[in-house]
Amino acid sequence: MTFLPYVAASYALGVIVPGGFALAAWRRMRAATRKLAAIDPRRARRASEKTS
In whole angstroms, what is the distance from residue 12 CA to residue 14 CA? Predict the structure, then answer.
């Protein structure tokens, strides 16, 4: 009996699980950035200074 399927599965999990965590963190960061941009008064002030 070969252990190749177990080794392949462990390598796959070693790539998929951290990749999933990274993707989830990236999506949370994007959402937080959008929320911050919506409530940040400095961004609106900078935009009005550029047009003036």
Answer: 5
